[in-house]
Amino acid sequence: MLLTFFIFLIILLVLVLSHEAGHFFTARFFGVKVEEFGFGIPPRILSLWRDAKGTLYSLNLLPFGGFVKIFGEDLPAGEAGGNEVSQPGSFGSKSAPKRAVILASGVLANILLAFLALTLVSGLGVPQAVSEEESSAYPDAKITIMDVAPDSPAARAGIMPGDQISGFQKMENVQDFIKQNQGKNIPLSLIRGGKLFEISALSRQNPPEGEGPLGIALGLTRVKKSPWYLAPADGARFTWEILKGTILGLLDLIQSLFKKEALPVEVAGPVGIFNITSSAINLGFGTLLILIAVLSVNLALINILPFPGLDGGRLFFILIESLRGKRISPKTSALVHSLGLAILIILMLIVTYHDIARIF
Most buried residue, 47, 66, 114, 233, by CB count within 10 Å? Predict the structure, then answer.
């Protein structure tokens, strides 16, 4: 549990700090002063150091991520209360395109992180489904548990998707073995994360239709490794597939909310992600990298939504300013984004409550 929590914190830090690093480096590139780069969420507990350009690097109490404080971000120049940020080093003094790039750079950094993780995964090897007809051409294909039905004997025994079954040559041998021992304790030798272990599950005499005695779906998989010169291309392709799938999932989610239908996907907060991390650790380093990539793409797309308090909300304000030919009042901007942030925190608390309720 302690190792899982430690890895969970590292994943959160990598995701959020890469996002904030995108803002940090583009702000520096355009000559905007970065007042603080915080590790963790305030209150501040330690000032680590201050660099030659005046940026304070701080350690904060809550270890879930970080932040970048950009000089004059919420006080555009030329408005009441914004005169002090009309200096060359302020965010508000920059043109709309430059401010837009600074705001969008966090999202781009998350997409880049996903690409790098998936490029590494492509080089290390990714699971590839193999049909029974193809199995003769791939002697390294393994019998793999593709799915576990909720509240089934397999789920209660701790069997997980991705586990490989050892000791059988063909899938039909596994299916015959389970059928012959229907209603009994069925021992299985499983490989998870490269480690072999034994597990036993009490199978059902009369299982629900379509589930089988144990409640598992079987398939053949092999590890496909890309040559180093093709890994970036495969990483880019995998990133695009995850990006496309996440966009479609978000659109379905938004559509369901407006239609007041049941959500097509489960929404997970920090507690839910912690549980997913626990499962990913058991499946190996490659699965952890895939999880980082998926979470990074999700973080990027959520941040680009035109909602107050998010990067997309601030970009939307810049678009309005460009269409009006006039800056939005800093008081209005600060009020709207603060309200949006409060709503997001409330939503996160609700999601976390449902995560905990699902566990117990």
Answer: 114
